[in-house]
Amino acid sequence: MVGAEPVIKKHRWLSPVWLLPLIALLLAAGFLYQQYQNSGEQIRINFEQGNGILPGKTQLRYQGVAIGVVQDLALAEDGRKIAVLAKVDSRARALMRKGTGFWLVSPKASLTEISGLDTLVSGNYINVQPGRESNPVANEFDALDGPPPGYQAQGRTLHLSADSLGSVGIGAKLYFRGLEVGSVINTRLGEEDKQVLLDIVIEPRFEHLVKADTRFWNISGIKGNFSLAGVSVEAGSLASILSGGIAFDSPAESPVAERGATFVLYKGLAEAARGERVRLQVGDLPVKEGMPILYEGIEIGRLDPIRLTDKGREVSALISPEQAFRITRNSRLVWESVKLSLAGIEHGDRLLAGPAIRLDYVAGPRAETLILSAQAETKGRELTLATEDLAGLSEGAPVWYKGLQVGSIRALSLDAGGNAKVRVFIERNHGALLERARFYRATPLQIQADLSGIKVETSPAASWLAGGIKLVQARQGGRIDRLYPDEQLALLGSAKAVAKTWWLRASQADGIAIGTPVFYLGLQAGKVTQLVVKGGEVRIALEIDAVYAPLVGSQTQFWKKAAIDTHVGLDGVRIKAGNLATLLRGGIEFDNSPTSQGNGKLFDDREQAQAMVRPFTLVASRNPGLGEGSAIRYRGVTIGKVKGVALDPAMGQVIFLAELEARYADRFLQSGASFTLVQAKLGFAGVTHLDTLVKGAFIEATPGQGAGKTRFPLHESPHSGLMLTLKSPALNGLAVGSPLLFRKMVVGSVSQVALAPDGSEVQIQVQVEPDYAYLVRANSRFWNVSGVKADIGLTGGTIQVETLQSLVAGGIAFTTPEQNTGARVRNGQSFPLHEKADEEWLGWSPRLTP
Question: Is Cell division a UniProt keyword of this protein (predicted)?
Answer without folding.
Answer: no
